[in-house]
Every structure is written in C-alpha cells, then in structure tokens.
Amino acid sequence: EKGTYPHYMLKEIDEQPLVIRNIISKYQDENGEVTLAEDIRNAMKAADRIYIIAAGTSYHAGLVGKQLIETVAKKPVETHIASEFLYNMPLVSEKPLFIFISQSGETADSRGVLVNVKKLGYPALTITNVPGSTLSREADFTLHTFAGPEIAVASTKAYTAQMAVLSLLAVDAAKAQEIELDFDPIKELSIVATVMEALCDQKDALEKISRDFLNVTRNCFFIGRASDYYVGLEGALKLKEISYIQAEGFAGGELKHGTIALIEEGTPVIALATQKHVNLSIRGNVKEVAARGANPCIISLEGLNSENDQFVIPKVHEYLTPLVAVIPLQLIAYYASLHRGCDVDKPRNLAKSVTVE
Ligand code: F6R
C-alpha cells in the first residue's frame, strides 16, 4: 500500500535507506562480517571471468557491479544486455560464472540466456528481488535483494538494492581470495543508508532543479565519467520513461565525438561529478557544453564540489557513490513527470515485468 504517498515511486525512493539497512542485517553474520553461502563463494572463486547479464535498469546495476567486482575482488567481468547476448554471444572464457540480475526474475530476454548457459553446462547465479521466480529457480544459486515489492514501473529501490548486494558479493569474493580490504564494507553501506536519508530530505531542492532545468525542454543529456557514466545512463532512463523527455546518458569524453552537435541554446545537461580521478575532466566537459549554450546542472560529491554546483551529495566511499548519486536523478525524474502531468507509476507502453522477448 502506498499509504499517504501520492505515488508508489516516491514511496519506493524513500524506502531506499531502509532497504540498504535490511540488506546489511540479512547478509552480516554474528561477528558483523559479510558472509555469503559457501557455494556462491566457491563459484566466484573458481570463475576465471564473470558474465553479468541483465536488461534495462538491472543492466545499469550490472555495469556498476562490473566495476565493484573488478576493483574489490580483482576478477575480470563483462556486463551484457540480455537480448544482445542471446543472439550475439561472445566467446566465453574457460571457467565462466554467469550472474543474472533481475528485479522480477521473469524477464524473458535474461531467461533466454540462462537456458542457453545451462545447456552449455556453465554455473549461474541470479540476483533477484523475487526468490521463487523463474530466473531464481533455474539458476544454481540465488542472492535475494530484499527490497520488498516494487510496484512503480520505474525501478528505484530494486536498483540500489542490486548494487548493494553486488558490493557484498565483491567483498565476499575478495575475502575468498585473501585480498585485503582497505575499508569496512558494512560500515560504508551504513553510511550510504544515512546519506540516502539526507538526500530524500532534499525533495524541495530537487523539485526546484527539475522545474528550473526541465520544465520547457524536449530533451536532456546526462554526462559522467567512470561510474558516473553508468549512473547517468540510469538517470536518463528514469527521466525518459516517466516524463517522456528525450534523455540520453553519455560518457563525458565521448560527447565531442558527435553528440555535442545536438547542444543548443538552453539544452539541459546534467553532469555528475562524484569521482576524484575524473573530476577535472568532467568539469572540462561541462565547460565545453556551456560554451555552446547548454544549461549545465552539476551534481557533485562533497569534497569534490565547486562553489556553484547545483547540488552536493554528502560523502560516501568512492566505490559506493552510484548508490547515492542516483537518488537526486530519481527525484528529478519524478518531479519532471509530475510537473508534466504524466502517469508517474504507470508510464505508457511499459509493463512492470517483460515476459516476452
Ligand atoms: C526501468 C525498468 C526496466 C527493468 C527491465 C528489467 O525502470 O524497470 O528497465 O529494469 O525491464 O527488469 P528486471 O530487473 O525485472 O529483469
């Protein structure tokens, strides 16, 4: 039930801190350590390469998952769009592990890949919000995202839950290989939950940004580098699916290779700046678009911010910034949809779970 909330989407955005705390409590042992089931740990350890398969928002979580597993657990990872992998399968390594990410666990494109992978005899892990679902039953192992039912068609809490679980999977795989961690994963996730709360309290500021930047526009670009690029893709998907504003996410450095031709006087460009090693470069990209008339909105991380940034996110661990950076984008999309009088929870042409290919 959505209770006093006008829309499920807003309720589900607000539930994100709780979901993260729930995930922490489900996955920590009595010593406050992350421990996953032994068969999952062994499968991660045995794999020489990991293939993440998903669609839509879950694919975007998979892109972040690749980065988490590679940086924390030092395993090579490829993230693929399920419907592409299905008919254009790359050469796979000798000992692959397949990870399916699916909120519903029923997405036909992902299931198609799972069926093929099982025929080939490869191990498969499903990360899902619905443990009894098809993808969960047909895989060898399941990790539950514990986000609770997600009713709004636009996925919000399932996405952040998927990334939180992927971070724990990465941490567990690192431990299995005796890789020293230089951070406390549970503590850092608790900080994420606290920061999420602070962001959910900033609705008025984000509604104003939505009004100031998106009220009259037909299009909007999201730019970022490294993990901010992945979050930008998700921000663009949220905005287009519920407000029908044409929105695209781009890697900051790729803009000048073509897309910059689309920048006109007043085109909104939402830039994410949460990554220290690319902070100067992304700000350079903002200058490039501003010089061509764009209306840039910079969303940065505390400590990397400049004085005139439109929105500053409190600090979290650098690996976990996508979990918090997406929240302003979810809320900006929500208000854009609301201001345009769209059906926030049930956008046109879309179904909550896509069970046909
Ligand atoms: C976007 C959205 C979709 C789903 C996609 C995959 O907000 O919800 O892009 O993420 O259809 O669905 P699942 O995760 O159920 O496999």
From TrEMBL:
GO terms for molecular function: carbohydrate derivative binding; glutamine-fructose-6-phosphate transaminase (isomerizing) activity. Its main location: cytoplasm. It is found in: Cytoplasm. Transmembrane segments: none annotated. GO terms for cellular component: cytosol. Residues 36-179, 209-347 form the SIS domain. GO terms for biological process: carbohydrate metabolic process; fructose 6-phosphate metabolic process; protein N-linked glycosylation; UDP-N-acetylglucosamine metabolic process. It catalyses: D-fructose 6-phosphate + L-glutamine = D-glucosamine 6-phosphate + L-glutamate. Keywords: Aminotransferase, Cytoplasm, Glutamine amidotransferase, Repeat, Transferase. Its EC number is 2.6.1.16. It is an enzyme of class 2 (transferase). It comes from the Bacteria. The active site is at residue 352. Catalyzes the first step in hexosamine metabolism, converting fructose-6P into glucosamine-6P using glutamine as a nitrogen source. Homodimer. This is Glutamine--fructose-6-phosphate aminotransferase [isomerizing]. The gene is glmS.
